[in-house]
């Protein structure tokens, strides 16, 4: 797909950061690690990747704002456009040598996510989309799965850790969903969970307690692949609430009823 100039900048930047992270991943035991909070680690590689992405994106588009996981938000001269970046989604996987993590870059325009890139350097998989242009994995067009039955579908979510307050709700979700479906996966990288829904690898995904950078790119990729994306709570804002549920059109209503059931 021939993307816009903005999308090409995003993809080039994601690949550059991904290559740098991949080198560090090969030496994961030697990385210097600091603790940012219970169960939430940040590495020197993570910070370096964000700095690299910030410099490249703001060099290409100096008037845009920038919101990243590791640094303070930068307000741009153009208040309508903002980059939203997770330089390393799946940090805990990275630190443990698990090859499932990604670079995520989104572009927001007037409060709407209009482009997104999620790059998995280990597998060299580039998921990307622009509003109105479809969703893609490398050179192949993406479509959500076509399954119609919950019992044949598999879903992804995140499991709260280290005393997070949403653990009881998630356990209740699982108690309702597991008997009705083919399985639930927890791979530890929300950006890739969303990308996998777009690719039809998962039939749906839901999670609470996410940040803007965890899901911004994935939202537009799922939508452009034909998926339905909504907040968990009616009338809520997905980015603002940190809660999302998505899936293919055929099973979404049934899936959402199970998860949203009081």
Keywords:
single chain, 262 residues, alpha+beta, Fructose-1,6-Bisphosphatase, Chain A, domain 1, D-Maltodextrin-Binding Protein, domain 2, 7-stranded mixed β-sheet, 35% helix, 26% strand, globular
Characterise this structure:
Helix 4 packs across helix 8. Strands 3-4-5-6-7-8-9 form a seven-stranded mixed sheet, with helices on both faces. It has a five-stranded mixed sheet with strand order 11-10-12-14-13, sandwiched between helices. The chain has a two-stranded antiparallel ribbon with strand order 1-2. It is built from eight helices and 14 strands. The protein has two domains: 5-141, Fructose-1,6-Bisphosphatase, subunit A, domain 1 (Fructose-1,6-Bisphosphatase, Chain A, domain 1, 2-Layer Sandwich); 150-260, 3-Layer(aba) Sandwich (D-Maltodextrin-Binding Protein, domain 2). With 262 residues, it is α+β, with helices and mostly antiparallel strands.
Q: Strands across the major sheet, in which order?
A: 3-4-5-6-7-8-9
CATH class of the largest domain: Alpha Beta
Write the CATH homologous superfamily of the largest domain. Answer: Fructose-1,6-Bisphosphatase, subunit A, domain 1
Arithmetic mean pLDDT = 92
Tally the helices.
8
Helix-strand string: HEEHEEHEEEEEEHEHEHEHEH
Q: Under the CATH scheme, which architecture of the largest domain would be assigned?
A: 2-Layer Sandwich
Q: How many DSSP E strands?
A: 14
Strand content: 25-35%
Class per helix and strand makeup? alpha+beta
CATH topology of the largest domain: Fructose-1,6-Bisphosphatase, Chain A, domain 1
Q: Please give the domain count.
A: 2
Helix content: 25-40%
Q: Any idea what the shape is?
A: globular
**Biggest sheet record:** 7 strands, mixed
- The end-to-end span amounts to 43 Å
Q: Indicate the low-confidence ranges by residue numbers.
A: none
**Rg value:** 18 Å
Protein name: Inositol-1-monophosphatase
Cofactor: Mg(2+)
Organism: Yoonia vestfoldensis
Catalytic activity: a myo-inositol phosphate + H2O = myo-inositol + phosphate
């Amino acid at each position: 797909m021939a993307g816009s100039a903005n999308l090409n900048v995003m993809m080039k930047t994601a690949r550059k950061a991904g290559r740098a992270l991949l080198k560090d991943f090969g030496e994961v035991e030697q990385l210097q690690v600091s603790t940012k909070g219970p169960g939430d680690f940040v590495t020197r590689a993570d910070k370096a990747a964000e700095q690299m992405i910030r410099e490249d994106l703001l060099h290409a588009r100096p008037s845009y704002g920038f919101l990243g996981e590791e640094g303070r938000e930068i307000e741009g001269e153009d208040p309508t456009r903002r980059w939203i970046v997770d330089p390393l989604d799946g940090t805990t996987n990275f630190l443990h040598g698990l090859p499932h993590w990604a670079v995520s870059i989104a572009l927001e325009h007037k409060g709407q996510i209009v482009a997104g890139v999620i790059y998995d350097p280990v597998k060299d998989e580039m998921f990307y989309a622009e509003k109105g242009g479809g969703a893609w994995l490398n050179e192949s067009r993406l479509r959500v799965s076509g399954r119609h039955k919950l019992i044949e579908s598999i879903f992804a979510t995140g499991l709260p850790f280290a005393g997070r307050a949403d653990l009881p709700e998630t356990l209740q979700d699982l108690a309702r969903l597991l008997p009705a479906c083919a399985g639930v996966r927890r791979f530890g990288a929300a950006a890739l969970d969303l990308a996998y829904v777009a690719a039809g690898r998962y039939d749906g995904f839901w999670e609470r307690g996410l940040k803007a950078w965890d899901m911004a790119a994935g939202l537009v990729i799922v939508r452009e692949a034909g998926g339905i994306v909504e907040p968990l709570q009616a009338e809520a804002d997905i980015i603002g609430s940190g809660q999302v549920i998505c899936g293919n059109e055929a099973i979404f209503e049934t899936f959402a009823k199970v998860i949203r059931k009081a």
